[in-house]
Design brief:
7-stranded antiparallel beta sheet; 4-stranded antiparallel beta sheet
């Protein structure tokens, strides 16, 4: 038997679509009452030689690269800040001894603060490319957590550091009533 399309079939299909949309809206409301989507800044360290990425979430918008100067054998701290458009700005460099390559710049402010030499000079980059030092201590510190580059790359590997924004889903915290 051939079924003919009728007004009642059309009304049923319209009702079916309405019920589906209502269920979809209710599920979305339940989902977004418990979860929220946040934009997070992350640092990406790309090991160019191995084509491997390490992703580090950043809360403070700041990080420090530390290395041991190859001749002076003293630590050098480079303090960076991440801008809203994911540019990386070197704000200051701290080190303990002057020698070959230290200080590296004549621009900016250069002073001695409590036994540390400090250069304050803003230099902005979209990416940082560097070779992993064979000397222990070559690392990045983000929000108080340190990652040694030798844990993610071999000595002399080329790594590129850049930042980007990622969307993350997180459960909403429950607010306690007073």
């Amino acid at each position: 038997m051939i079924e003919h399309w009728s007004y009642s079939n059309a009304r049923f299909m319209k009702t079916k679509k309405s019920v589906f949309l209502l269920i979809l809206v209710l599920l979305a409301a339940i989902f977004f009452s418990r979860f929220q989507i946040d934009r997070k800044t992350v640092i990406i360290i790309l090991n160019e030689d191995e084509n491997k990425k390490t992703v580090i979430p950043v809360i403070s918008g700041k990080f420090t690269i530390t290395f041991i100067h190859s001749i002076e054998k003293t630590p050098v701290y480079e303090l960076y800040e991440i801008s809203a458009d994911n540019k990386i700005t070197l704000n200051e460099v701290r080190f303990y001894s002057q020698g070959t390559g230290l200080p590296f710049s004549t621009g900016g402010i250069f002073k001695n603060e409590n036994g540390q030499f400090v250069i304050r000079e803003k230099r902005t980059f979209s990416r940082l490319s560097l070779r992993v030092s064979p000397l222990p201590g070559h690392s990045i510190t983000v929000d108080g957590k340190r990652l040694d580059f030798l844990d993610i790359a071999r000595s002399e590997d080329l790594i590129t550091i850049y930042t980007e924004n990622r969307w993350a889903l997180r459960k909403k915290s429950k607010e306690k009533g007073v």
